[in-house]
Amino acid sequence: GFCTNLLLLQTPENILAQTKSKTEIFCELKKEHAGVYWYRWSQERQNFEFLIFSSLLGKATYGTNISQDKFSVHGGSSHTTYSLHISHLHASDNGTYYCSVSQSSQLLLGSGTRLGVVDVLPLTQKTTQAPSSKKPMWCLTKRKAYSKKGACSPLVWVPLAASVLVLLLSLVPTAHRFYRLRRRLWLRIHRQ
To answer: Which positions, given as ranges, span the membrane (predicted)?
Structure first.
């Protein structure tokens, strides 16, 4: 679902960075929270991955197989501004990054920052710091967000599963017809 209350302001919208360099994503909270979570959606791997949680005290908790050398979070003195630092950029870092806070057993996500990592930057474009936009945020339950398979809601997978089932059922008569034709052909060959 989408939230109408914009509690997080995430900037920039897009970043294009060079391999082996570093970048930074900013997240501003409208009010103080216990800390901020960072997630990455990978289009290539089709998964929503927990990267790091940074508490008010600055203590970091990392996700499974997440390098502490690559990711770090810096918090402002106001406890409402955070920035995710990503170093040693590689093509595997491509994806959309989300800052997130927990509220009423839900995770409220920012609008996302799309990171593209390339070997050579185009001459006309450097690392982009686009102005922020006021897009609505996704709301995910914590259970869904921690799932390794990602936050795929029933609104997506139920129609998808139904379509696959219909497709499989439509193949049954075709397979039966093919079997009968093959049987007839076999009988003709053996009669001669």
So the answer is: 156-179
Contact present, 10 and 99 (Cβ < 8 Å): yes
Specify the length of the chain in residues: 192
Instruction: Tell if the pTM clears 0.70, that is, is over it.
Output: no
Selection from 67, 70, 80 nearest residue 35 by Cα? 80
* Residue 150 pLDDT grade (very low, low, confident, very high; cuts 50, 70, 90): very low
Instruction: Give me the residues paired with residue 139 across strands.
Output: 108
For 57, phi then psi, to 5°, come to -80, 0
- Model confidence at 5, pLDDT cuts 50, 70, 90, reads very low
Would you call 176 helix, strand, or coil by DSSP? helix
With beta carbons less than 8 A apart as the criterion, state whether 80 and 26 touch.
no
Question: Is the Cβ–Cβ distance between 49 and 42 less than 8 Å?
Answer: yes
Contact (Cβ atoms closer than 8 angstroms) between residue 109 and residue 52 = no
β-pair type (106-109, 8-11): unpaired
Q: 9-62 pLDDT, tens per residue?
A: 899 999 999 999 999 999 998 887 888 999 999 888 888 899 999 988 888 999
